[in-house]
Design goal:
With about 425 residues, the protein is an alpha/beta fold. The chain folds into two domains: about 120 residues, GMP Synthetase, Chain A, domain 3, CATH 3.30.300; about 260 residues, P-loop containing nucleotide triphosphate hydrolases (Rossmann fold, 3-Layer(aba) Sandwich), CATH 3.40.50. Strands 7, 8, 11, 12, 13, 14, 15, 16 and 17 form a nine-stranded mixed sheet that branches. Strands 2-3-4-5-6 form a five-stranded mixed sheet, with helices on one face. It is elongated.
């Protein structure tokens, strides 16, 4: 007998994809045809009532999103899900296939998940599926629900002897932090990652700003689907870098009202359970401030160094000092300070010192840490970020674009240099790269 319970699932639940033994076992067409045979209490089918909002299927894994007609309450959702399950399994069986995993979600009028269930292969009695039941969870609650379909993080990271897990294949982890929000930390993280990739490095970018992820917009990820392959999140590959962000796993307009442990869990899962592969650099865009995620990162990963982002104003410097001292207290070397929004460059090339240029450089001198450079504000920078085209920041052809590109290239060069020096101070050896 099947047991049912509502499931709290992310809005953009991943399209479960895996290389299985039956590559023709499931398809969108097969599932849609099966759903056309599932009757509702009013006599209509799921297809005929326009209840099917989306179907994603690949290699025996599928996710179906349903929105029932008005008047059909939550009590009907479990039996309808069961009927859909039976129909889909039967349809797959007719073509000699096997359903490995099936997730059925019910949406309300706003597109929020109000009920769901996940079935996995294993029970060969009658249907060939077993019901995966989970405990009830309030849909408005603040907790972190682990992303469905992923493998265990510790096994993936290769933790041993109680030591913090280390990402396999990632040579250098660079954290980008700031003492306060609004200083352009994500802009610097993104352009640093793209700049390093343009120099031939294999680069990953983790959007660790759990509460305010901006990479879906700045990298143009809006229309891309999140994919899980063999129990691991597959990073997006855009503009020469690999990227993963929680912004693609939750409703983009719903705030994440999470306490520290929830943010810790989300960051840990994004870090350990993303298939980064071989990387020269993993850039981590941290949330502003000196809170839980930064501490989690320091405990979880061997960080090569941190970049602190600041604007020229005194109030921003005060908070940046706290961020720099936080990294030092966590035994993470500060690679340097970046002065973002240092000045404004008009389209005619004229420079305006809007916020008092040079304040962050003076702060870096007081802290006895390197100054990595000043990055200007330009109209093209804003346009490129809004359009999700950061590569364009490095190929500006007008006067302001040329100054921006020059500043970003200098930032990348000085960051590379500081990473190499930090590595040597830590006992590492310089690596000769022949291209």
């Amino acid at each position: 007998m099947n047991e049912w319970g509502p499931v709290l699932l992310p809005r953009a639940l991943v399209s479960l994809t895996s290389v299985m033994s039956n590559p023709v076992s499931l398809s969108k067409a097969v599932i849609s045809e099966a759903l056309g045979s599932v009757l509702l209490p009013d006599g209509q089918t799921l297809i005929g009532s326009d209840s099917v909002r989306s179907v994603v299927a690949c290699d025996g894994y599928a996710t179906v999103k349903l929105r029932l007609p008005e008047g059909m309450g939550p009590k009907l959702m479990p039996p309808i899900a069961e009927s859909a399950r039976v129909a889909i399994v039967a349809a797959a069986g007719q073509i000699g296939g096997r359903v490995e995993s099936l997730t059925i979600e019910f949406l309300n009028g706003h597109g929020d998940v109000v009920h769901g269930a996940k079935f996995g292969a294993g029970d060969t009695k009658k249907t060939g599926l077993e019901t995966g039941a989970t405990k009830s969870a309030p849909l408005t609650g603040p907790g972190h629900t682990p992303i469905v379909g992923l493998a265990g993080g510790a096994a993936r990271a290769g933790a041993a002897d109680g030591k913090p897990p280390v990402l396999p294949g990632v040579r250098k982890v660079i954290a980008v932090g700031a003492g306060k929000g609004g200083v352009g930390k994500s802009t610097i993280s993104l352009n640093l990652a793209v700049g390093l990739a343009r120099r031939g490095h294999a680069v990953g970018l983790l959007d660790g700003d759990i509460y305010g992820p901006s990479m879906p917009t700045m990298l143009g990820l809006t229309d891309l689907e999140t994919v899980v392959h063999q129990g691991m999140l597959q990073p997006f590959y855009v503009h020469g870098i690999k990227c993963m962000t929680i912004g693609k796993l939750v409703d983009p307009e719903k705030p994440l009202i999470w306490r520290g442990p929830m943010a810790h869990g989300a960051f840990k899962q994004l870090t350990e359970q993303t298939s980064w592969g071989e990387l020269d650099y993993l850039i981590i865009d941290l949330p502003p401030g000196t809170g839980d995620v930064s501490l989690t990162m320091a405990q979880l990963l061997p960080v090569a160094g941190a970049v602190v982002v600041c604007t020229p104003q005194r109030v921003a410097q005060d908070d940046a000092v706290r961020a720099a001292k936080m990294f030092k207290q966590l035994n993470i070397e500060v690679l340097g300070v970046v002065e973002n929004m240092s000045y404004f460059v008009g389209d005619d090339g004229k420079v305006y010192d809007l916020f008092g240029r040079g304040g962050a450089e003076a702060m870096a001198q007081r802290l006895n840490v390197p100054f990595l450079g000043a990055v200007p504000i330009t109209t093209s920078l804003r346009i490129n970020c809004d359009k999700g085209n950061p590569t364009a920041n490095f190929v500006g052809k007008d006067e302001s674009g040329a100054q921006l590109a020059l500043a970003l290239e200098g930032l990348v060069t000085r960051t590379e240099d500081q990473v190499a020096l930090a590595d040597m101070r830590g006992g590492g050896r310089p690596v000769l790269k022949v291209s």
